[in-house]
Amino acid sequence: MNTNPKELNLCGLVAVRSRFERDPTSIKRLFFDEPTGRKVGAICKALAAARKVYRCVPPLELEKIAGSIHHGGIVAVIEAPKLRAPDSQVVAKWAAQRAPLVLLDRIGNAHNLGAIARTAAFFGVEHIVIPAHPQAALPGEAAFRVSEGGLERVQVWRTPDLAKLIRELAAVGYDVAGAAARGGKPVVLAEGGVRKPVAVVLGNEEHGLAADVETACTRLVTIPGSGRVESLNVSVAGAVLIYALMAGR
């Protein structure tokens, strides 16, 4: 297990390949089992040229390095990501580009963060914002593994005040749609034509949106269902809303 807080283990072939494609020099060390070693020749060649460590290890050692049985046959050690806070210039740039955004209000499960990042990347969303809150999951090893390369395609930002950021987004013309389990307007597919840039806000798995975050949103939306269960998992709800509100942009 990697005990260096400045480093992060990337597990799984898709995640490692995605990192190599985006930033090959960021891989510091690489470990893999024998079957996976046959699939990473190009990565090993690049590491050899850079005089970095890479080697095939037995399954038990790979499990120990990964700190998990869910390593997918390969572990790449990289620098832990440094998360910036979006300032007014960044917000203005997003508005000028009409960039779609996903904001997460205290999503606590790293697997949900990874799944949402995967969805965001699939639909072309390039920015996710999380709050600097102790309940909010960070993009760590589990999130990277579940994202299947998605966290290599989106930039994660960390804001000290999510409600304030939402008000700033609304002020520059964003349609900030907060997800509500009930009480919001039924979400429908976005229509064509000129529309405001959209920011989708997803709330905590148990408690939903915080009161100040909910108030700051320009509207609340609810996914209509059969009523047989109360709500969707937040990552599934995120997929539905991102598609519905950003389709055709």
Layout of secondary structure:
Elements lengths: L6 E5 L1 H10 L6 E4 L1 H4 L3 H9 L3 E4 L2 H8 L7 E6 L8 H10 L3 E4 L5 H13 L4 E5 L9 H7 L7 E5 L2 H10 L3 E5 L5 E2 L11 E5 L8 H6 L2 E4 L11 H13 L3
Parallel strand pairs: 2-3, 5-6, 5-10, 6-7, 8-10, 8-11, 9-11
Antiparallel strand pairs: 1-4, 2-4
Helix pairs in contact: 6-7, 6-10
Task: Describe the structure in your own words.
The protein has a seven-stranded parallel β-sheet, with helices on both faces. The model has no long low-confidence stretch (mean pLDDT 93). By secondary structure, the chain is α/β, with parallel strands linked by helices. Helix 6 links the parallel strand 5 and strand 6. Helix content is 36%, strand content 20%. Helix 6 packs parallel to helix 7 and helix 6 runs parallel beside helix 10. The protein has two domains: 73 residues, 60s Ribosomal Protein L30, Chain: A; 159 residues, Alpha/beta knot (3-Layer(aba) Sandwich), CATH 3.40.1280.
